[in-house]
# Entry
Amino acid sequence: MDDDLTALDAETLSQAIRARRVSCRELMQATLARIHRVNPRFNAIVNLADDDTLLSQADARDAELAQGRWRGWLHGLPQAIKDTGHAQGFPTTFGCTLLRDAVAAQDGLMTARMKAAGCIVIGKTNMPEFGLGSHTFNSLFGATGNAWDPAVSAGGSSGGAAVALAQRLLPVADGSDFMGSLRNPAAWANLFGLRPSQGRVPYWPSADVWVSQLGTEGPMARSVADLARLLSIQAGHDPRVPLSIAEGPQDFVPRPDPGVLRGLRIGWLGDLGGHLAMEPGLLEVDEAALQRLAAAGAQVEPATLGIDPEAVWRAWLLWRRALVGPRVGALLGRPGAREQIKPEALWEHDQGAQLPFNEFMRASETRTEFHARMLGLFERFDLLALPATQVWPFPLHERWPRAIAGRTMDTYHRWMETTIYATFAGAPALSVPAGFHANGRWPVGLQLIAPPRADALLLRVAAGYEAINGELCARRPPEGQR
# Structure
């Protein structure tokens, strides 16, 4: 019975709880039983609250239903918040030993919205230290193994969220995405991971609400309907975050549209004319996924950025250093901080500390040119497509891939370069399941990118993609089978 409940999608669970066919206590008992059995192998959920506290909260949700009060779509559903987000009473550690006792005094905005819709926060999900690098390991909690093969990386930085979701420890998951942090782990878990448009899901509290716009929170799910429903809860303008989106839809759940793929124009960017280093087999899996879209009526054509991708990468490096460096620097005054912070984070800080403002402005001008080029592409195409990852999941003990197909990676994150283009354009991007490695164990995703603020279009297309790839999207990792 426990696995029967945790195997259900969030929409089915939500309806069953609202109709009181399943109690919140029953779902919480099933979830905790599965977490205690499965999580030790994967290390996806950290700082889990004690069972009695969570069961008591589930009982309170049941009592509300008995009184005719239903909080919303997440009523009684267990939720673990990515460790970049604040959840009152839980530490917000960012995977850093220096923050192990940094208990949040209040909920972050996204957490508050999900709680208002009825979720019960059960703990946090694991991530890389400071969210840097798409490989979930840190010195505080250790590494998170891939949901399909725990000997290899889960991706990141929302790696714990992806594994918890794929292993049915959670019905839906939240995360954040700066450089593919919702897309990469979703691709390696056979899930849907959405980086919303810049400003769609406002982040609060924040020390800066004007410049720090490259990172955003967002949803991850096993189905497009669940993904869209969670986005509908997370999204919406907040006056404390002045650049958050104030107009547009609040309900992103796509209506059934059998013809959504017919005539859809997709520009396939591939490996950017050889610029992106790619491990063998990845492009072929993505191109097969695009062929299935073409068979359903989409028009898929090769596309080019129209700007030197190396210039975009150099501009990206400066923006990233400028935004990441202060986060790391805020902790460097603590005793022994440099010895406890990982070298990749120190590298970002030290590079950013030497960044002249004029260089940053030149990088911003390059970004402006790139944004204009992207808008030009969206005049020709409805969506753009890129690989979601450049490598297959790599051994868990490695920090990051040092080379791809014989090409040396010159930074710790160069192997994630395929994710920067949607981020830099402020555009929504969604990783959809594309297929598997020849070994049958490692999933990979296709990244679909829509024009800025066209999140609803992207979700409609994703629903159409899911409809023609039902068997692939429904595949479960071996450890998750009953």
Notes: Residues 2-480 form a domain with the Amidase signature (AS) enzymes fold (CATH 3.90.1300.10). Residues 139 and 292 are 42 Å apart (CA to CA). The first helix runs from residue 2 to 6. The chain has a mean pLDDT of 97.
